[in-house]
């Protein structure tokens, strides 16, 4: 076992310095993501008991992301990509701080905090995606995303457990006073410290900004248009994966400690499966991984919709913990390979496709969360929580033949070069 660990460490140590530094930065920031994705929603639920307010917060986040991608594209002409990347990470803590300062959660305050978080995500993901594309190639991307997703999954186990237990004890023992919000404020301080550390790491190595300055285009070849359709389907499910677990758990099960405990049940096994997949699978296996992940997600949403109980929520969250990393480890390398192909063919900057891809995600996110809002307005909150997820999961099945076609076209394009 020790020899095996040493061998894996040797593989990591021998990675190119830029790729290794990017992974190290993202590994530290991975401790932040579960907090901003899970406990912000729980905080809003605790202080408002309003699922619609959680959805509105998420809509504000998703509105801020694509427009920040646009601004980031212009800023990259003048500012070092590392500084923009660092700013994105730091703003996640600032967004939480702004929300904690609100005396009363209302639409305006939630929108402000959500927009700041959207700007944070926009700067983080725009520059992260470009750096991942620039420092990897198709042959090592399974490994890169396997390691990254493995660490993200571990953090989504450990962090919710620890933070959930901390907030749960703060509430039950009242050792921070009568209000649990003091516990959230301490967690926010931790987030800010972690973002500072990750910002320091990314500055240890020099990275290149995109060389070609133009990045706004309106016409693309059919292969990229298909990729945009796939991104729209991915976007539909993204909003729910952030908001639904917190809403369902706080609504049907209890408190923040439950939120952390449920995340941990299946996560450890998932993490090691992901690392194994990253080390041992080839590009040809990506469609199989994607298909298994989508099937698991469909099972989880059907169980939640049929039972709509504590057991249904547990099954759904367990399936979500399995689905998300399986989907990502297949999706991101497919996306990067398509960018490799079309950017070479159309002689455009890779960032042009990263920027355009975000608007595909945005349309999907608005459609998915819009479905929830419509069902809540014209049916009921329970109908929205039970059935919107099922509709989104069924639509995800369309991703499988679409992704298969995209991979086939990408391979043929590379063979013709």
From TrEMBL:
Keywords: Membrane, Transmembrane, Transmembrane helix. Pfam families: MFS_1. The chain crosses the membrane at residues 21-45, 57-77, 84-102, 108-126, 147-170, 182-202, 223-248, 260-278, 287-307, 313-332, 353-375, 387-407. GO terms for molecular function: transmembrane transporter activity. This is YQGE family putative transporter.
């Amino acid at each position: 076992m020790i020899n095996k660990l040493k061998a894996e460490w040797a593989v990591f140590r021998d990675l190119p310095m830029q790729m290794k530094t990017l992974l190290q930065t993202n590994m530290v920031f991975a401790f932040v993501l579960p907090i901003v994705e899970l406990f912000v929603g729980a905080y809003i639920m605790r202080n408002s008991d309003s699922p619609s307010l959680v959805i509105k917060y998420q809509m504000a986040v998703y509105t801020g992301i694509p427009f920040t991608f646009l601004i980031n594209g212009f800023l990259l002409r003048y500012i070092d990509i590392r500084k923009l990347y660092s700013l994105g990470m730091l703003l996640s803590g600032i967004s939480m701080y702004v929300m904690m300062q609100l005396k009363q959660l209302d639409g305006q305050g939630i929108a402000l905090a959500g927009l700041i978080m959207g700007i944070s995500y926009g700067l983080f993901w725009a520059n992260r995606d470009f750096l991942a594309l620039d420092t990897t190639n198709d042959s090592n991307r399974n490994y890169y995303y396997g390691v990254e997703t493995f660490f993200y999954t571990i953090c989504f186990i450990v962090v919710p457990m620890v933070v959930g237990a901390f907030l749960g004890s703060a509430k039950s023992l009242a050792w921070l006073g009568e209000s649990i919000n003091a516990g959230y404020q301490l967690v926010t301080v931790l987030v800010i410290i972690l973002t500072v550390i990750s910002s320091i790491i990314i500055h240890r190595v020099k990275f290149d900004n995109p060389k070609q300055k133009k990045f706004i285009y309106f016409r693309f070849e059919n292969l990229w248009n298909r990729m945009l359709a796939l991104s729209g389907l991915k976007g539909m499910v993204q909003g729910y994966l952030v908001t639904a677990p917190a809403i369902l758990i706080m609504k049907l099960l209890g408190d923040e400690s439950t939120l952390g405990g449920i995340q941990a049940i299946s996560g450890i096994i998932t993490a090691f499966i992901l690392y194994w997949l990253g080390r041992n699978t080839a590009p040809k296996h990506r469609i199989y991984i994607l298909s298994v992940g989508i099937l698991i997600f469909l099972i989880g949403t059907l169980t939640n919709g049929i039972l709509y109980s504590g057991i249904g929520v547990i099954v759904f969250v367990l399936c979500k913990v399995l689905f998300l990393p399986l989907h990502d480890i297949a999706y991101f390398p497919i996306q990067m390979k398509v960018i490799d192909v079309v950017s070479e063919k159309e002689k455009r900057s890779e960032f042009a496709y990263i920027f355009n891809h975000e608007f595909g995600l945005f349309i999907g996110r608005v459609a998915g969360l819009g479905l929830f809002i419509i069902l809540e307005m014209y049916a009921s909150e329970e109908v929205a929580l039970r059935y919107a997820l099922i509709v989104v999961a069924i639509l995800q099945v369309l991703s499988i033949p679409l992704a298969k076609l995209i991979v086939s076209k990408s391979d043929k394009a590379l063979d013709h070069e």
